[in-house]
């Protein structure tokens, strides 16, 4: 037993309420359990409890033991002056004589406690993997929708940080997040720093010359240092030195990483592709807000890097010819990790539910991610049909299952309260 479980049991009344009474035998009837308080003060506020013949309104405090009241020094805390009932798992001492005390130990189902202990101690991909198949699909589908919304809101926190720094500039924020995702997990921080060092207004001045865009991105990444034999890198180096002096630019301090990466994902290639996206677009986020067709949006990102990169993965070595296009999987990544979070955040800020619905709809129209988490759920019979599913499963696994927050999970709730 822990206090989280005790809160859960009280909140959903998972005990024998017909036998509820204070430790001195006075009958207790719960008319309203109150609202769970996650801030300082009693666990539940605005409760309505009938104790004997008297109706009380106020707060309810929960503890594992009665003696915890004094041990936590609540008797000296003004926040607890409105407590009308002290609910405990075990009444060990008469520590709150001024308050009526209810003990739940003998009123809670043993099977509920056993199931909860089993979930906490499970050593598996997810705690309920042996039981999740028994959860009705309607419960899982509603829960997945909520998980996706939670994930988008949480991703929106980064966007809010961007907006605070750049004075509510949504196009700039979109550029920063887009660049971060082009860097993939390995170089995300470096690409984000590069984007923050090159404002969209600066890039717009050079969007007609792809070489200058590449020079700015590669130069800020520190990739144009040293000597080059090929004329094109020499050109980029010369362009960067001129632009660096003109705009007083300083390369970012973050290093770029090539180790254990497929050549197609090298930072040089990704920066070249990013330059191509910039060259072929203008006011991209504004266009995305207005556009209803995801296919049209996909087309804006389906670009090829400059010709030099068809024969190169790095600035120093040539390779066999391969067009360095922004592929379908990368575009899916952009939709999932840039476009949908930005749309949802914009809709949240301006109270536009249609944009939030569009963000989720576009996730439903995007292929699911393939990773260890989605494969794990697939093995349990819960295959992802779209990016909405895969995002929901990632949120579920990382934010609930790994943290053993079964009490806050709809599937966990169903499994805990079922009779068998």
TrEMBL record:
Pfam families: DUF2851. It comes from Niabella pedocola. InterPro entries: DUF2851 (IPR021272). It comes from the Bacteria. This is DUF2851 family protein.
